[in-house]
């Protein structure tokens, strides 16, 4: 060190050069590190701000690849099962608050504009018509495609049931109103009813209710923003959803027995989603390109199929309905949750198809017209009672149908237990698409729809 100090004291110019070089090296290193960090931030920014349907598609593909190439160990299955449940919980995190505040504001705005009765009449009418239409299509498609019988498979019986109408009424009208806020999160109607009733009373005295209206309007927008952030983040959660789904499908033993039933569901779903609804939308919605609507709801449809949960899909429908389809809050807040509770057209269709196949499997005799009418009637009616089971509607409906029908098929639904996840997936897929179709049509017919260019879709 003494030698170096002596040298630099005699040659100050060289010391300055070396010091400057060292400083330059540190600066270059700092710039390189800063640029790398900036690049990483930019990559994450691009991921977070890319279109939701792209993130859903990428997540789905990655999840499928993981399920295909990872070994089917118990640990892997348990891991993705847990991640699946976690994603569902996160996705439903803001649903109840956003329904409470947005529906109250929506009802207030519709009542103020004196169109509330007309809007709800359309929503209920479209709900009934679509459910009836899909039930009929499902029933007669079985006769046209004629899938083969399924051998009777011995399965452990699982008892499924719906809450009695008395229990449902007690949930809607609890002794303490605040009990509706501490429910299990599987029944949205008590909160929906309260929000509707609250919104109706926002108009009785504008001076008194103005602070409450402003508060609810602000909270509606805040929770919409929270829901939007959750959706942006968990869209890539499709990795867990698709991986868990595929692991469940791979567990199905002798899946070849159900190939024709699955093919029937695929054909029906494709015809309805890519043919029937676009055609109806074209003729009833102003003769515009109906496939823009389908592009706009691609992400909620995929989410519905993978999650098998109507309430989880509702969070995506609310955002895509506004951002892509131009459905205003007052229509979307009324229509989307109402369909999530009562609008189970896809569930009714899958139930009718599955039940007829059960009848064919248990009897060598042909299916008579009376059996078809009975199946359609009860599948149609039961679909309106499935709001308490957002993730198991089809299988519960099937078990109830078998019990009601009797004559030896009380446990007939068990032969379809191995493919229950697939049945529910197709049901929720069509439920979500039907909800988007009907609510969009309501906004168009009431001239409340805002045109959104496809390039601006999220």
Blueprint (SSEs and pairs):
Blueprint (H helix, E strand, L loop, with lengths): L1 H9 L1 H38 L2 H18 L4 H18 L3 H18 L3 H30 L19 H8 L16 H12 L5 H29 L3 H13 L8 H26 L6 H6 L1 H10 L2 H14 L5 H14 L2 H18 L6 H14 L10 H13 L14 H26 L13
Helix pairs in contact: 1-2, 3-10, 3-13, 4-10, 5-8, 5-9, 5-15, 6-15, 6-16, 6-17, 6-19, 11-19, 13-14, 13-19, 14-15, 14-19, 15-19, 16-17, 16-18, 16-19
Note down, in words, how this protein is organized.
This protein is mainly α. The chain has two domains: 47 residues; 402 residues, Proton glutamate symport protein, CATH 1.10.3860.10. 73% of the residues lie in helices and 0% in strands. It contains 19 helices and no strands. Helix 13 runs antiparallel to helix 19. The longest helix is centred in the first third of the chain and has 38 residues. The protein starts with a helix and ends in a 13-residue tail after the last helix. The model has no long low-confidence stretch (mean pLDDT 85).
Radius of gyration: 28 Å
C-alpha end-to-end distance: 65 Å
CATH architecture level-2 label of the largest domain: Orthogonal Bundle
Broad CATH class of the largest domain:
Mainly Alpha
Low-confidence residue ranges: none
Number of domains: 2
Order of helix and strand elements from N to C terminus: HHHHHHHHHHHHHHHHHHH
The secondary structure category is mainly alpha
Mean pLDDT: 85
Outline:
The protein is built from 19 helices and no strands. With 458 residues, the protein is mainly α.
